[in-house]
Amino acid sequence: MSRSFDTGGAPHFPPHSTVSRVMLQVIYALVPAIAAHVWFFGPGILVQIVLACFFALGFEALMLILRKQPLRLFLGDFSAVLTAILFALCIPPLAPWWIALTGMLFAIVVAKHLYGGLGHNTFNPAMVGYVVVLISFPQAMTAWLPPSSIAPAALSWSDALVTIFSGQPPGGLAWDAITEATPLDSIRTSIATGKMISEARQLPVFGDFGGLGWEWIANWYALGGLWLLWRRVISWHVPLAMLGTVIALGGLTYLIDPGSNPAPLQHLFSGAVVVGAFFIATDPVSGCTSTRGRLVFGAGVGLITLVIRRWGGYPDGVAFAVLLMNMAAPLIDHYTRPRIFGK
Amino acid sequence: MKIDPLSQARSAGQQLHHFHGGLRLRHNKKISCQTPIEKTPLATRYYVPLLQHSGREADATVSQGQKVLKGEQIGCFEHLGRGCIHAPTSGTVTAIARHPISHPSGADGRCVVIKPDGLDQWKELEPIDDWEQASPAELRQVIGSAGIVGLGGAVFPTGFKVNQASERGIHTLVLNGSECEPYISCDEMLMREQPGSIVLGARILQKAVGASRTIIAIEDQMGVVNAALFRAVEKSGAETIDIVKVTTIYPEGGEKQLIKVLTGLEVPSGGRPTDLGLLCQNVATATAVARAVTEGKPLIERIVTVTGNGVRKPRNLLAQIGTPISNLVDQCGGYASDAARLVLGGPMMGYALSTDSNPVIKAANCILVLSEDDIRPPQPEMPCIRCGECARVCPSILLPQELNRAIRNGLWDDVMELGLADCIECGCCDFVCPSHIPLVDWFRFGKSELHLLDQERVRAEAARQRFEAREARLERLKRERKKRIEDKKLALQENSSKQQKIAAAIERVRSRKSPKP
What is the mean predicted confidence (pLDDT) over B72-93? Predict the structure, then answer.
């Protein structure tokens, strides 16, 4: 007696990995840094994450319906959630709610779906959203809190909620009273006013290497990033090239003129260099795919970041650097194709 | 200092190298290695496909109702040299009809259907008594007529391969015993149980192609195989055979990967191992060669691993070509209750069969019955997120994600430039893809499209040449006609001038003749 079987394509194995698993692992890797963020800057970040996820999934669903794509499949891939979390980690924890709304509108609708949805976006969606709000709402985007250890008043959950939804500082305080220039801002100002960086570093917002609190958050980002490397979710090429470039070039400029150039570790442990190296520049869709291409890409992001920090109009340049290198990615990929076996 | 590639190739196996990419897979071989190889009993019908080699379908050389003896030629083809197919047992040809033929395409093909007479009577065998005295050409001739094909899975006619190899000049014969796909253990069991026959085959092949040494490559996880082969080599007294253990990383058993591991050299793209003076043969092919030369028996049986969680008693069977697969499964205790997929070959490169009435063919190294839990349930395909995992594992150092994009967009020039022709369809990219894109299916499609385009180009070129030839012919005819007309005119003119001359001459004569005034 012969028996019939259903056929299917090779390889005949259970699925090895899925897109949603990749995205989820990246989200897990962000958890320690988020916890550190809450520790140093209060619960605002959690509110921002929830808000951004809410808007992101809303826009994602809307665009999927308009584009007649399967809802469950693409809402369940966690790519929009990851975009939202990365965006929320970039904005001030007490930014008003419409910052997240605007950012997600540009990230999900413009940068992602207008370019063809998952896998087709030329630019990193989270960075597009962030850069749009950074340029459009400079005042709201520079209202950073000092770490809680040196803050004049500790902010509670309710303070954070009220501030985010009303747009007014808590307890009738003025914005100036509770916000503080970030370490990178302080360095810019000191250079602009002709002071030495060593003088600026006397300010209380600085820690051992970078910004107070920030350096610890960077450590946790690095830990999450190393875990992703170990899990082989990301490859080592982009982080190594980016961090290596920042250290090498930062070191070189520091050796030439330590008065107006921060030390390489200062560069590394302030702003978005570490999170950028492990979580943002490693975005596969908008980055390079060949291994040599990834080295060039990472090095480019590091270089442009330092150039913007030193000579540009913004204190940090990771987001701009990533977007600029996104543009160059196809070209880099074209010139860094590996040699085919036997050719 | 650059080392001369040929001398590097000559020192094959002395130092091992790495190849790019690959996967470390769970072996799953032990389950089918617990019992010795068993012979399959006579079936009630044999369905011997006329296409079970790479190339064109053979023509049947027997007709319906004809009686055949075991080992008698029943089919023959003239492509890549002359090759034959032989009867697996003695009996009557009941039909030459279409039947499932275990082909990757799933299509039916023509089969010689044989009803056994139960005697299993061999034809008159003509072995070479002392192969060591035979000439290499004589050995190659015997190999060519015994219906031997590469038993590793590629089923390339061995006769053609050894002829080509001896013309090109070979220094090292590589016997490939590193079957890298999970589950498959037929070569391992063969090396355990019949190492002597492999060593004999190696010596015959070495002489037939004029190689000076042989390397038998086995996997480092094959346990007792090494010792068994070593003893067999010692017993034979051959001093030119080395056994090399290679690291188990799928697909290290691929011909090009194995050569890279053994020599550090890459077979040129589009080339063959003979370009490096090497010839690769599967270990089972070597035993088939030994049997053909020393016993005169053609290839009518092979060892098949019947395994997987979907079969009750996994083991290796010595099965006649043409035996229905259902017979083999029955001999292994039948299907387990959750048997879900029947695969011919391994889990990475094997293809799913729709029915177990498909016959055992020369390429059938493994019948893999998988349970529900072993297979990928139909997964929704997601867009490529360019994670690059496929490129990381590709042993041919291709960029599968770029190939996928180019093929889907029909950018055939890009596809060729990205090296689709160098894809060995090992399935590593497919395995790791988080978006579940059936990459290898797309690559096969791309290859067939390129092939069609190529044929079209050839046709277009032929049409162009025909057109140009016709134009040239018409032009020539036109020229010739014109010339003819002109010639005629000229002749006419000449004629008239002649007549004038004649008239003038007559006039002159007449005037001379006439009396002077």
Answer: 89
What is the Cα–Cα distance from B261 to B14, expressed in whole angstroms? 10
**What pLDDT sits at residue A148?**
72
- Please check the confidence at residue B289 and state whether its pLDDT lies above 60: yes
| CA angle centred on B495, ends B491 and B501, rounded to 5° | 140
Average pLDDT taken over every residue of chain B: 91
Give me the mean pLDDT over the B459-469 stretch. Answer: 93
pLDDT at B1 (0 to 100)? 44
CATH class of B1-24+126-296: alpha beta
CA nearest to B100, candidates B358, B324, B320, B367: B358
**Domain positions in chain A:** 19-180
Domain layout of chain B by residue ranges: 1-24+126-296
Lowest average pLDDT, out of B5-9, B199-203, B276-280, B289-293, goes to B5-9
The residue ranges of chain A whose pLDDT is under 50 are none
Instruction: For residue A338, list chain B residues with Cβ-Cβ distance below 8 A.
Output: 391, 397, 399
B285 and chain A in contact, CB less than 8 A: no
Please check whether residue B391 touches A, CB under 8 A: yes
The verdict on A284 touching B (C-beta cutoff 8 Å) is yes
Parallel/antiparallel/unpaired status of strands B351-353 and B108-116: unpaired
B118 touches chain A (CB under 8 A): no
How far away is chain A from the Cα of B280, in angstroms, using its nearest Cα? Answer: 17
Q: Is there a contact between A73 and B438 if contact means CB atoms under 8 Å apart?
A: no
How would you class B302 by CB atoms within 10 Å of its CB: exposed for 0-12, middle for 13-18, buried for 19 or more?
buried
One-letter amino acid identity for B195?
P
| Residue B378 in contact with partner chain A when CB distance is under 8 A | yes
Q: Which residues on chain A are in Cβ contact (under 8 Å) with B274? A: none
Nearest to A5 among B347, B354, B376 (CB): B354
CA of A117: which chain B residue's CA is closest? B383
For position B515, what pLDDT does the model report? 62
Please identify which residue in the block is written with the tokens 């204190």: A315
pLDDT digits (tens, 9 = 90+) for B222-238: 888 999 999 999 998 88
- Minimum CA–CA partner of A15 in chain B: B376
Calculate the CA B187 to chain-centre distance: 18
This complex has an ipTM of: 0.88
